[in-house]
């Protein structure tokens, strides 16, 4: 009977290894890299595509604004036919005439400060839209990385749950055999059965969680049945570079899209003050026209063609607007103060978020090292407990607890590694440095 237990204990690590290999081969059939799925999401995700459309539209809005400083030319053509029936005592003949007109008109703003400010604001708005697009792209990277590694974590959780269930099943069978021959009590069997039933419930929950996480990833990339490629073994997590939080904060202050957008908002608000003040300034417009009129008919004193041309310069100077301009200036000054506070809030929020993300990654890296040590210790503890059970100094429950501790540690270690990668990307997002090249770097850590 002791030989049975030894054989069972010897085969257990092998069975778990085979199970993990089988799962890995099954996923490798259609495994897709993070880079591939990110490219798919860029072409499918509605939120990102909407931000890109807004950025494109800002360019057209700039074109509309720039048209204010360009000449405007128009063409007008008309024809009028007039018929007259005179009184019968005067004449029995109807007479009439046709007048045809054609002309060109042109105008050009020689001086209009408001138009110039509007153009400057449109240029700033193009940069604002680009900042929003950068934010949307960074958000997409985080969402695709989170969904990707959530699926891998769910797969690992299911695999460890199944391995734990298999080990419990073997321990349950051993307890039953020992009870039948009288070397163990019924308590060992019932404890193992209870653990087996619990492991079954946990397996069902883990399987459902994997399905849900898979649906999330599928929806994000617009595909069905996506199988992410696992991390290469052994796992080599990159260190945080630079290694000081101040360096990250300094970079964030100069490159974060939220700060850049807030600064642009302040610039636009200042331009709005200039525009409000421009309402007090004169405007100078140049206009001109050239036309031709052709008249034909009977009963008219003149037939033929006449032409005319004119040019004019108009100056308009506002004198009094009932206080509207003054109040508009005061309004824009208040809005500038709001924009200044928005910028300060953005700077503080980015600094706080960067520090939180930095310390979070540092903590996760330390946790990974601790879990790696715990995994090795748990493996040794399990082997010692199994040996103690074999010689009769440990009970079945001790073995079950040692097995659970090992598999739980392995699951948590895998989750911590994925969290390091995702939160490293979040750190770059928090500091405004996240780029598609970072996806490529993480993709290099995946199995080939």
TrEMBL record:
Record Gene3D superfamilies: Outer membrane efflux proteins (OEP)
UniProt-annotated location(s): Cell outer membrane
GO CC field: cell outer membrane; efflux pump complex
UniProt KW keywords: Cell outer membrane, Membrane, Transmembrane, Transmembrane beta strand, Transport
Keyword Transport part of the UniProt annotation: yes
GO molecular function: efflux transmembrane transporter activity; porin activity
NCBIfam families assigned to the protein according to its UniProt record, in alphabetical order: type_I_sec_TolC
Family: Belongs to the outer membrane factor (OMF) (TC 1.B.17) family.
Protein name: Outer membrane protein TolC
Species, as recorded: Roseateles depolymerans
């Amino acid at each position: 009977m002791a030989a049975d237990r030894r054989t069972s204990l010897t085969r257990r690590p092998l069975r778990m290894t085979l199970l993990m290999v089988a799962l890995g081969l099954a996923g490798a059939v259609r495994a897709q890299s993070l880079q591939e799925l990110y490219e798919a999401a860029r072409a499918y995700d509605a939120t990102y595509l909407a931000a890109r459309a807004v950025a494109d539209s800002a360019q057209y809005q700039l074109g509309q604004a720039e048209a204010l400083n360009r000449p405007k030319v128009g063409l007008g053509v008309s024809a009028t036919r007039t018929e007259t029936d005179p009184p019968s005592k005067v004449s029995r003949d109807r007479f009439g005439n046709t007048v045809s007109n054609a002309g060109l008109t042109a105008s050009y703003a020689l001086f209009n400060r408001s138009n110039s400010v509007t153009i400057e604001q449109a240029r700033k708005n193009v940069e604002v839209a680009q900042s929003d697009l950068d934010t949307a792209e960074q958000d997409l990277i985080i969402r695709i990385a989170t969904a990707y590694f959530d699926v891998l974590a769910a797969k690992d959780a299911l695999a460890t749950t199944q391995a734990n269930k298999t080990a419990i099943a073997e321990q349950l069978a051993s307890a039953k055999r020992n009870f039948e021959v009288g070397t163990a009590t019924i308590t060992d069997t019932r404890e193992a059965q209870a653990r087996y039933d619990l492991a079954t419930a946990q397996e069902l929950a883990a399987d459902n969680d994997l399905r849900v996480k898979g649906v999330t990833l599928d929806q994000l990339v617009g595909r069905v049945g996506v199988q992410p490629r696992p991390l290469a073994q052994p796992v080599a997590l990159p260190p945080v570079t630079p290694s000081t939080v101040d360096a990250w904060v300094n970079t964030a202050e100069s490159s974060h899209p939220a700060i850049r957008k807030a600064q642009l908002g302040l610039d636009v608000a200042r331009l709005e003050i200039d525009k409000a003040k421009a309402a007090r300034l004169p405007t100078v417009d140049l206009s001109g026209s050239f036309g031709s009129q052709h008249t034909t008919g009977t009963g008219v004193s003149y037939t033929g063609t006449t032409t005319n041309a004119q040019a004019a310069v108009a100056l308009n100077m506002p004198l009094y607007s009932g206080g509207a301009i003054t109040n508009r200036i005061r309004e824009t000054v208040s809005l500038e103060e709001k924009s200044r506070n928005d910028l300060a809030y953005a700077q503080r929020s980015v600094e706080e978020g960067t520090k939180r993300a930095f310390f979070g990654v540092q903590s996760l890296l330390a946790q990974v090292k601790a879990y790696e040590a715990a995994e090795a210790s748990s493996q040794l503890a399990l082997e010692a407990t199994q040996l103690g059970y074999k010689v009769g100094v440990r009970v079945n429950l001790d073995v079950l607890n040692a097995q659970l501790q090992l598999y739980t540690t392995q699951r948590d270690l895998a989750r911590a590694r994925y969290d390091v990668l995702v939160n490293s990307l979040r750190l770059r997002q928090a500091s405004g440095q996240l780029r598609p090249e970072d996806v490529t770097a993480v993709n290099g850590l995946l199995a080939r």
